[in-house]
Amino acid sequence: MNRLADLISQAGAQFAAREALADPRTRMTFAEAEADSNRLASALVRAFGLSKGERIAILLPNCIEFVLTDFALIKAGLIRVPVNPRYTAAEIEFILDHSGAAALVTCASFAESLAHIRGRLGALRILVTIDSLPGVTDALNWKDVLAQGDPATFAVDTASSDGYMLGYTSGTTGRPKGALSTVGARWATLFITFANEFIATPDDVMLHVASLAHGSGTKVLPIYVRGAKNLLLPKFSPFDFFQAVARDRVTVSWMVPTMVAMLADSPERSRFDFGSLSTIMYAGAPMPEPVMQRALAAFGPVFIQIYGLTEAPQPDLILSKQEHLPDPASGRNARAGVTGRVAMGVQLKLVDGAGQPVKQGEIGEIVIAGDHVMAGYWNDPAATAETLRDGWCHTGDLARMDREGFYTIVDRKKEMIISGGYNVYPREVEEVLYSHPAVVECAVIGAPDPVWGETVCALIVVKPGAGLDAAAISAHCARALASYKKPRRITFLDALPKTANGKIDKKALRAAYASPTPAATTVDAMQ
Fold this sequence. Notes:
Strand content: 25-35%
Strand order of the largest sheet: 2-1-11-10-12-13-14-15-16
Distance between the termini: 68 Å
Number of domains: 3
CATH class of the largest domain: Alpha Beta
Number of helices: 15
Structural class: alpha/beta
CATH architecture of the largest domain: 3-Layer(aba) Sandwich
Helix content: 25-40%
CATH topology of the largest domain: Rossmann fold
């Protein structure tokens, strides 16, 4: 029995003539997607001899072949290893080597990287490209591989405990770790999604602009099995987003907060009709409140905030559309900065350093339990034992809960700054910085200090021509923050570095700016 494969094939039969998948190159019906995913699954097993449980990597931009490969791996009982297309050659090599991937499905965009590392990937015996792969001599063509398969229904029996996906963390604090999700965990996540976010109908169209290797990819299956369309864009831009929404009457999308900000601030909005867009899910990083207010003004009450992580896939916390809106009587948004309530089907609590529950209103670490939680980290028993303790997944995220059951994440446990014996949560300082109208983007980090232990450093991007200086920032913060929370070092940058998943890369910022000696571009704001 293969429950996930059965769901895919049922959709293929029930919605056969409807359009299922679309990208800028082609469009495909449910019947065609069913046939091609069967062809690939059967070819991988019968023609190429891959066995249940082997790891197969996908290194592709958003495209139809990504989804077909995903479905084929489910049917073949193979473990998918999604690789973010923004990763460097070194990061790609690490994931392929660490996972022991037996096969890779990729395209010409990554030819240079793969030509450089191919000789060092001893476990990789099958390389499939959807187009060409210059410089790589052993690559097989996608169409030739499919030709060796059979379009008839194909499924390898799987158990709930069998591996489904090896998802690598973003590595913001060190080397990425491979979180192994099981078939049972994917099944649980699917139905937690249905219970909490939305249930698609055949009239829905989901636009994927964030990488399918990240959070957006978790929504493909819930959309597909309900007979709705997955529309795939290989890269994000406001123009391409609005054009796709208008053309295909898109109803739902998933993105990170930086994308929401770009859409809210884009002049392209006035050129297109985006009235069909009823749901935008966002996750991956905190949403600055000023950005959220601009987004609500631009799009209306369409936003759902979801929280999750690779080790315990979203949604774990969820903030509904209605909960984003201000109180009709007072006009005040009491949920500003709130992350959400616990999703149905998820167990979640806050604990102190000893693992004991904290009192209401106190800050504690989020720990999560449920059938959707990972089985452990691939080939890393020490990290697994540190994260999975007494049946709970320790997230490293710090939060508080109010009397109504709303959780507010205050920061990452490892990013908390201790200055003069006081705890400073960078997100709190960032929210104040974002409230200044001239601040476009910011990040707060800690740096060693001989007097205070650590000092608060702010890295800021300002609007062109705003003329903002350190004195103005310091005065602005003084009106909202205790003196020990104020940034003591302020650095103005043209842009902040991002991780492959679109988050601000604090690891890179700490490496560049968190030194005992301020950089030449840093202003001392000790007053």
